[in-house]
Amino acid sequence: MDERKNLIGLGRDELVAEMAAIGEKPFRAKQLWHWLYNRGETDFARMTSISKVMQAKLAEHYVVRRPRAAQEMLSSDGTRKWLFAFDDGNEAETVYIPDLDEERGAVCISSQVGCTLTCRFCHTGTQLLVRNLTAAEIVGQFMAARDTYGEWPTPDDSGRQLSNIVMMGMGEPLYNFDNVATALKIAMDGEGIGISRRRITLSTSGVVPMMERCGAELGVNLAVSLHAVTDEIRDRIMPINKKYPLAELMRACRAYPGASNARRMTFEYVMLKGVNDSAADARELLRLVKGLPAKFNLIPFNPWPGTEFECSDMADIRRFSDILQDNGYSAPIRQPRGRDILAACGQLRSESKRAKCSRLKERLAAGIPDDHHDAPDAPVPAP
Predict the structure, then answer these.
(1) Residue 91, SS3 per DSSP
(2) Catalytic pick from 214, 253, 311, 345?
(3) CA 250/CA 267 separation, integer angstroms
(4) pLDDT the model gives residue 124
(5) Catalytic: 93?
(6) Were 344 and a residue from 24, 185, 302, 326 both cysteine, which residue would form a disulfide, CB within 3.0 to 4.6 Å?
(7) DSSP states of 178-210 as a string?
């Protein structure tokens, strides 16, 4: 294995520290930042503003590496899904969802291999958490997607096809906040990838202690995976509700920094037949969000092999949407995308599995540290 350090995923201060470690001045970090995150260059020899001596020195100590696409699938509707392989052999899925009306679209990025939350309607939830993704692996997904679409150097805003980032892939982003924050700060940097924070949405299932910190440190749009309007139903389909019930979750939503009528919080709501799709559910949803600058994203359930749920009838979904919209809320019905390649909402999954205890014991006996030891119920980072 190549022991050189990967520069992708390093923030500005970390890049300055790396240059100091090899005896170089801070301006080298600024040069590298431009080549890494604005130009998308992976070969030091092609970084033409850097001397050949310095290019050789960088190549001796560092690499520029993004996740490798082990598999790539293109849907009939233009949605593209990658299965990205990481250095340790684990994998995660990433999806590009084009907006066909505007010739741009969003890259749906994963934050974990597997997931801690085991939501019963979500295919990812059937795969236990293997580990958190690093900042390099998170921002690297977006950069690798740009490689596919040839979007280097960074285009101006009007020319971007990959215009938005949604942290809605595999995993719960707020259970891996430090790495997610580092990656998104890199993505938002105006001298690099340059995605506006207004074009980044982070989706959480309701990790209440981390929501305020997310708003204060990142200021990105927040989407809350709600999916039920009573604790009884939400406990059943989303076990995290037993830890952070609806009353606590809604208080955290009201306290989210930066939420306003101009930047409404999105509530995601998957439509499950006979579970959460009645007119009474819609009216209770209105009561829950009263006073919040909110909008809704109604998601027809996307089936996956072995699921116990069915999608609500379209007539019931329209009735649900009409009730919300008649009360002044935006409540579009999401058009399912990428179903034919299992790339739609709730369908992402990889075959990575947590190492068995026997294998872990063998590694420890050989003196190899256990770098990926996340517990199935990952702890919340300290605020």
Answers:
(1) strand
(2) 345
(3) 11
(4) 72
(5) yes
(6) 302
(7) HHHHHHHHHHH-TTTT---GGGEEEEES--HHH
E strands in the chain = 5-6, 62-63, 68-74, 80-85, 91-99, 104-108, 112-113, 131-132, 162-167, 200-204, 221-225, 265-271, 294-300
Asked if the peptide bond before residue 239 counts as cis, ω within 30 degrees of 0, the response is no
pLDDT in tens, 145-198: 999 999 999 988 778 999 999 999 999 999 999 999 999 999 999 999 999 999
**List 93, 151, 172, 268, catalytic entry:** 93
DSSP type of residue 272: B
Locate 174 and state its tokens.
């707020």
Cβ neighbours around 311 below 10 Å, total: 18
Spell out the domains of the chain, with CATH numbers in brackets: 5-63 (1.10.150.530), 73-341 (3.20.20.70)
Q: Give the bridge partners for 92, in sequence order.
A: 84
Contact 25, 19 (CB under 8 A): yes
Q: What is the per-residue DSSP string for 15-32? A: HHHHHHHTT--THHHHHH
| Residues across the chain | 383
Beta strands 104-108 and 91-99 are: antiparallel
* pLDDT over 90, % of the chain: 76
- Are 342 and 306 in contact by the 8 Å Cβ rule? The answer is no
Q: Which positions ≥6 away from 82 have C-beta within 8 Å?
A: 69, 71, 72, 93, 94, 95, 141, 144, 145, 148
Cα(17)–Cα(24) distance, integer angstroms: 9
What pTM, to 2 d.p., does this model score? 0.88
Tens-place pLDDT, residues 66-123: 999 999 999 988 899 999 999 999 999 999 999 877 789 999 999 999 888 889 988 7
User: What 3-state class would DSSP assign to 11?
Assistant: coil
- Is 345 catalytic? The answer is yes
